[in-house]
Amino acid sequence: MGLVDIFGRIATDLRVSLTDRCNLRCTYCMPADGLPWLPGPQLLTDDEVVRLVRVAVERLGVTDVRLTGGEPTLRPGLVDLVARLAELQPRPRLALTTNGLRLAGLASGLRAAGLDRVNVSLDTLDAARFVALTRRDRLADVLAGLQAAVAAGLTPVKVNSVLLRGVNDDEATALLRWALDAGYELRFIEQMPLDAQHGWRRADMVRADEILAALSTQFTVRPRPGRGTAPAELFEVDGGPGQVGVIGSVSAPFCAACDRVRLTADGQVRNCLFAREESDLRTPLRAGADDDELARRWRAAVRGKHAGHGIDAPGFRQPDRPMSAIGG
Asked: Under DSSP, is residue 46 helix (H, G, I), strand (E, B) or coil?
């Protein structure tokens, strides 16, 4: 039996956070001086990560594994960890979400180890604006990382962009033109209430319909059929083959088709980015629980998944953990 909730949704896509640490300080994610990081002993070891993913793949029907953070390339031994995950049977599809800063030096090794593809976060093509958004002067490193990912065969290389009202929302068309010319697949993502500062305001969020309206001023965008469980709604650009995705997590939620489950860097199961409940796998794992017991606990955790993220509910509260400690 797989990971089935009471609404009949089946979780086959596992997001595994490898660290809560990050080498950027994006304004919509965390304060300038960072956050208190998880103590090392609380983090899952490589052996623990591999074992839990093995349970998910062998016993619970997980077919896709995405490594996230924080910034996952800060995890020591990342290439070796990917190689171990690629050896699991049945072999899961392996992806990585990264800010790209260290990707130029890691892309070929990750591909050789078995990584299938990457998503790279990039919100602006303007160097000064990049510094203002991330508090780091590293745009050149991200661009080099993207090129290295293509060269290594980590394709399709997807780029995740968040537009912020009055900050970079004037770059929608420029980002799409750049991505089409470079051969990247662009995904615009609505800003979500997951910042450590809890300063998110709906009025400041650039909605999915606004993004599409902006793109339509310079491109012809038509929806592609067959979205399935994918978070992004895909649009054909100028008749194809180029396309762009828009993830309207807030204004057009896709909770009814969600097939994702998350494992935090400290071994907690989360059914949703916005969940306020977690289920502990690290404690039983370290106490000697066998694979059957871990699988039973994981099934029980997923069974209680809520119908939706509840952002529109009157009593909605942001989760205590920020995005960097949850895993994207």
From this structure: helix
- Short-list 242, 168, 246, 240, CA closest to 213: 246
Structure tokens at 211: 């993004």
**Are the C-beta atoms of 208 and 218 separated by less than 8 Å?**
no
pTM: 0.93
d(CA 163, CA 186) in angstroms, rounded, equals: 12
Distance CA(146)–CA(75), nearest Å, equals 19
3-state helix, strand, coil in the chain (%, to 5): 35, 20, 50
CA-nearest of 196, 198, 163 to 33 is 196
Average pLDDT score, the chain: 92
- Kindly tell me the burial class for residue 149, based on how many C-beta atoms sit within 10 Å of its own C-beta (0-12, 13-18, 19 or more): buried
Cβ partners under 8 Å of residue 124, min gap 6: 130, 133, 139, 168, 171, 175
Q: Range of 187's domain? A: 3-326
Question: pLDDT by residue (tens digit) across 100-158?
Answer: 999 999 999 999 999 999 999 999 999 999 999 999 999 999 999 999 999 999 999 99
**What distance in Å separates the CA atoms of residue 120 and residue 99, rounded to the nearest whole number?**
5
Output the DSSP codes for 84-105. HHHTSSSPPEEEEEE-STTHHH
- Decide if 281 contacts 52 (C-beta within 8 A): yes
Read off the pLDDT of each residue in 233-262 and give the average, rounded to a whole number. Answer: 90
Could you give the residue ranges of the DSSP H alpha helices within 127-170? 127-134, 139-152
Instruction: Report how far apart the first and last C-alpha atoms of the chain are (Å, whole number).
Output: 26
Assign residue 254 the CATH number of its domain: 3.20.20.70
Residue 196 has pLDDT above 60, yes or no: no
Instruction: State how many domains the chain has.
Output: 1
Distance CA 21, CA 8 (A): 35
> Rounded CA gap, 37 and 317, in Å?
22
